[in-house]
Design goal:
This protein is mainly beta. Helix content is about 0%, strand content about 50%. It contains no helices and 17 strands.
Amino acid sequence: MSSREIVVPYVRVDRPPVFGEAGFSVTVGIRPDRPVGQGPQGALAHALDAAGWWIGVGDDGRATVGMGTTAGPVSVSAGDPLAAGEWAQIAVRIPGRVGDRLEIAVRASSGPAAPARSVVVGARLVAAPGPLVWGCRALRDRRVPQHPFLGAIGPVLLDDGSSAVAWSEVFGIDPGLRGTIPAAVL
């Protein structure tokens, strides 16, 4: 990944891209420091409460994607538990229409890609207010990270098939820095 890694408590994108009804794809690189035993960790999210979507590491250490729908949350995990300190690339598809699939694929840097997993989503995505965040699942009161991530995140690509937004930066996420240094803003 990047030879220069900026360490911050989290990253905030105040004007996240808006995608249409067709849905969109997200690819993100992550290097979790402690993937197992830390509880759920949000690596990249545009979520708040039960709305929006999120990508991260589940309590079991596996790559996970979830979304809030009008019928409640839906999530799916893929692959074996991620290894501490090892880069992995997570590719997801967030559906835009009822009946489309929420999909996740993960590839660790030291091995073959795990089989992709998906689930049919039977309800509409509930859009989340607020920023796109790296390093947590959401920001309570727009400043307190929920389900913080510990490790590194980046680069990130969001693509709806007709337009793409990419960030090449790699950020080291240390939630313990909250209040001592500001969050990065992209």
